[in-house]
Design a protein that fits this description.
Strand content: 5-15%
CATH architecture: 3-Layer(aba) Sandwich
Number of helices: 8
Shape: globular
Order of helices and strands: HEEEHEHHHHHEEEH
Number of domains: 1
Length: 246
Amino acid sequence: MDPGDAPSDPTDGNRTAPPSTTRRRALLGAASLSTAALAGCTGLTEQLPVVGSGGDGSGDRALGTLATAVMGNPDADVTIRVWEDFACPHCREFTMDTLPKLRKQYIDPGEVRYEHHDIPFLGDSSWTAANAGRAVHEQNSDAFWDYSKRLYENQDSLGVDLYASVANEMGLNAEEVRNAAENRTYDDTLEADKQAAIDRGIEATPGILVNDTRVKTPSMRSIQIAIEVARGPRTATGPIGTNSTE
């Protein structure tokens, strides 16, 4: 068993599994069938050596010295952690298409805690954009989400001029954002965030954990299934994905 993935069914032989266990097994099987392969920007593990193999992250390097960008209920039983690279087209697709659905169904109603983490590895703009985002979050944590969306909307134009311009349009301190990007102010924190992803077995972006379960495809369906499994049998009242879309 890969420690970063969902646990296997504990039953053996011909013993009948309890209904909750059977449902969990069915959900995980559905998740594996939803896509055949890992989708996302790859090549991450070529950048840094794998130090760990997933799991709960105990003993891993700290996730940086700055506060994590968080949405939703900070005390929710289910936490979705997403590692992204602002230069990754798959991360752009996730943020523009899947994240709004997650917000509507789970985050805004307070059913989950959602965390953004950085994993810059595609090039210089990956690092400068992440530094700009960190600077914005330091200024106004609520503004970070709109700012990150705007960076993805302008992914083909990533650069210090864009970072400052968007910050200015949002009423933020554009000069601080520009300086953070140019000077790579938060690189140590970004390195820690990046290494934490690799420690957890993430090999492509966007990299997603639902609690301690690694979601291998960034689809709405796969995340829904992981959320249902994390919640346990108390949510076994109907089919997964009711009133939701891929």
